[in-house]
Amino acid sequence: MDSTRVQESRGEEGGGGLARAIGPRLLLLFIIGDMLGTGIYVRVGAVAGEVGGAVWVSFLVAFILAALTAFAYAELVTKYPGAAGAALYANRAFRSPLFSFIVAFAVICSGLASAGAAARAFGGDYLQQFISLPTLLVAMLFVLVLSLINFIGISESFKTNLVLTLIELSGLLLIILIGALALFGGEAEPTRPFEFTSDAALPLAVLTGASVAFYALIGFEDSVNVVEETENPTRTFPRALFGGIALTGVVYLLVAFTSTMIVDPGRLAGEESAPLRLVLTEGPLAFPPQLFSIIALVAITNTALANLIMSSRVLYGMAREGVMPGIFATVHRGRHTPWIAIVFVALIMLALVSTGNVGELANTTVVLLLLVFIAVNAAVLILRRDRVNHSHFTAPAVIPILAIGTIIVLLAQQEVAIFLRAGILLLVGLALYVVNYLVKRGLDRETPQQPGQ
Question: Which of the residues 37, 159, 174, 333 has the least number of beta carbons within 10 Å of its own beta carbon?
Fold first, then answer.
């Protein structure tokens, strides 16, 4: 079919470029698949605890923020189609190796915190449908199993991503269907999604809820990593990016609206890891809760594995570039995977799941990515002076400014403990950077100069 047609064209003469194998529809599905996952399945209840019945309002605010930052990514990825990633954009704009490193390590840590939240969620109430085990034990086993899969080697294709996306999407469409049946059958409370909590001022409640909901909307930024394999990226990428965010946002808004229309917000807020299960059990449609739990567990696993793979590969790439200790670039002879990097990220994840719950780790992810998004939006403005010899998407100048302002407001809603956790992770990266610098300087001193130098 058209959406999975593989083009054989090459980006460079002589086979030097990557295959332009991703068409517009396939890229759209990839972006949707990257955004769907743990967030919407486990964070609706937490948002309800902040804002009350109007969960969809906080999701709408988070969606607007994602769209604002997407403008920055659309401009940068079409302007520099071979330089994918926030760290490289920051390097072009700020010309600081240390700052670029911090941005890159923040991306790594955001992936690990997200995977850690998924690990804790996997051991929660969805799994309890089948077996009762301590959440922490399950989370740690989950990390070890996914790390083993990562070590063995995983060949991810877009067709696999498509299958997993359809499984994840089916569960959310089921929730929306339940909402429609309840509404037309008179079994829903259609006014409840318009009720706000009385425990806090309305704007503050909405913004705090949005900072929680934003975890469900991350993932679109990862699509910049496949721009070199996308057909006509200048035209294709912005459409797929905005289309993916819009379609995912609509699904999320409908799920959020349905959730509080069927389940009291207070009860939703009490479900840290499986709030949508309440919608299923209290709705008018008889659907096996075990089957829905399997769908949710697939979504959670897919999110965690993708983040784990991304984090280990970015760490490996940074080591190859010489900005991290070279040991992280070690590749296993038999499996051809960066096993030292995989072990390192697994250890960080084990530390995270041992010291934080789903909410704390999800919020840590949000803080780290919001800091990265500030750097990306600032890079857009700074790089306006840099001209390129091809056409590219250009965002209105006011949008990156609005994005930065909105991000700062959302960051202000987070607790100090979350910033502390994020800061500790970044300090680990800074320590590795210093160690790498000192080792390289020591090696340079020990290397004898050749005659005439």
Answer: 333
- Alpha-carbon span 168 to 254, nearest angstrom: 15
- Which pLDDT value is given to residue 29? 80
Domain positions in the chain are 18-386+394-442
What tokens were used for 96?
């600081």
Whether 97 contacts 246, CB under 8 Å: no
How many Cβ atoms from other residues are within 10 Å of residue 300's Cβ?
29
Residue 104, pLDDT score: 87
Ramachandran region, residue 388 (left: φ > 0; alpha: ψ -120 to 50; beta: rest): beta
DSSP string, 97-118: HHHHHHHHHHHHHHHHHHHHHH
Q: What is the 8-class DSSP label of residue 52? A: B
pLDDT, block means (10 residues), the chain with 453 residues: 36 44 77 82 91 93 91 90 75 87 90 90 88 90 87 59 79 93 88 84 88 88 72 84 92 94 91 85 85 89 81 80 79 79 90 91 94 94 87 89 93 92 93 84 63 51
Distance of alpha carbon 349 from alpha carbon 337, whole angstroms: 19
Torsion over CA: 312, 314, 319, 324 (sign): negative
pLDDT, residue 69, reads 93
- 308/296 Cα distance (integer angstroms): 18
> How wide is the angle at C-alpha 237 spanned by C-alphas 232 and 240, nearest 5°?
125
Q: Which residue has the tokens 């590969």?
A: 313
d(CA 53, CA 57): 9
Distance of CA 104 to the CA centre of its chain: 14
The reply to whether CATH 1.10.630.10 applies to domain 18-386+394-442 is no
Q: State the virtual CA torsion across 333, 335, 341, 343 in degrees, nearest 10.
A: -110
- For tokens 């955001």, the residue is 110
Find the farthest-apart pair of alpha carbons in the chain and give their distance in angstroms, rounded. Answer: 90
> From residue 164, how far is each of 160, 171, 302 by CA, in Å?
6, 11, 7
Residue 267 has which token pair?
């009860």
Residue 193 has a pLDDT of 92
